[in-house]
Amino acid sequence: MTVIHHVRVHRSEENLAREDQLAHKIAEVAADPVAVESDVVEMIINRVIDNAAVAAASLTRGPVTAARAQALDHPVSRGGAGATVFGEPNEVRTSPEWAAWANGVAVRELDYHDTFLAAEYSHPGDNIPPILAVAQHVGVDGAALVRAIATGYEIQMDLVRAISLHKHKIDHVAHLGPSAAAGIGTLLGLDADTIAQAVAQALHTTTATRQSRKGEISTWKAHAPAFAGKMAVEAVDRAMRGQTSPSPIYEGEDGVVAWMLDGKDAAYEVPLPAPGEPKRAILDSYTKEHSAEYQAQAWIDLARKLHGTHPELADPAKVESIVLHTSHHTHYVIGSGANDPQKYDPQASRETLDHSIPYIFAVALQDGGWHHVDSYLPARAAREDTVALWHKITTAEDAEWTRRYHSEDPDEKAFGGRVEIRLTDGSTLVDEIAVADAHPLGARPFARADYVRKFRLLAEPVLVPAEIERFLALAERLPELTVDEVRELNIVARAGVLAAVASPKGLF
Which residues belong to any copy of the MmgE/PrpD C-terminal domain (predicted)? Predict the structure, then answer.
């Protein structure tokens, strides 16, 4: 049975007991050696495949190339065998925190892997790179890796259910640092006191503003979660050496809640599994069929449908206006409510276009689909008819869609909305969608075959067929893998792929 932990700010003289602090409660969950249930194992396998798919598709992109170059400039640390770097041969290793960095950027670069949205939003698959890197470095088997990933998902998603960061313009990776540290704690079988110190440091070092996802969005967007994973690895190392961290990190009078979140009078109710309760949070997350912000997924599917039933909508001369009535979050983060002129700029970066629902809806309406590369090309964004249609699209907050966005009932939770299209002939077209087609409650929920198909589609240009089959065979046997097989849970690029892109030089 889930336990709800009441979290509030405590004055220093109150001396909140360590075992009553949220960081320690998180650590107790991580230290609980509960078995991972079979349906959770199957979903973890899906997400390992999903992460590898989107990482493969990003191997030659600038941010990934830079992060990989940084990682490869660092030797394997003395405490283990090192960890693999996506794209590089299995025998090429680096220190685990740098592998977490490089692989974390590769996974996040295209914004194309799993998501969970509640009080906060998240990509819980970001937990996998740092946990896997440590697993390879220290030498653990697949069963231990599965338990650790289950913890990472559980902790991040439980924090996301309860504590809003974006309301205070704090980047969502502040929930990822603690969850990755907790997952690594599970992996290594650490005691709760040690894990709690790592959780506290990981949070302390990963609180940053949301400017990384505002205005002209930079390449740091993909690096931010990788940085949180890297900090989690380093936090665990430091805690294992007996070093302590700011305490209480959440509840202290100068802590995160008091000064970065809801303030000294704040209170949160954080749900965590009870002792002995299985970690099942991953089953509430959902992946992406399309390479775009999650709130855009359902809108792409609706635009794809309208393209087929009303092809005339692709012509801006026939459209007077398009209004997407949607949730508060969609309106203010990726919609016109953000008041970011960059969201309507044909010369905006890929990262910015990925966070512009007016652009995404316009392109999907014209093309009848979405492509992770072609839909973001500068020539595609600058097409005259697209710009004309794009600039006729706005968003509006709708109270009912906001309520459904925040609903705890999975049967009514929704991330879409209602579109109202006014045509130049005076007629109006109205349609709506609640969840993406690939969502568990959508028209075509993703299953294992869909994850495998996504991997094959994205990996085929950069991996040889034998490598695709080798990785899939390992991933689908994840809980049975030996230590040596875990160390080969990597994707190796075909000859010449990585050499074809310049490796930027830096300080290291």
Answer: 290-477
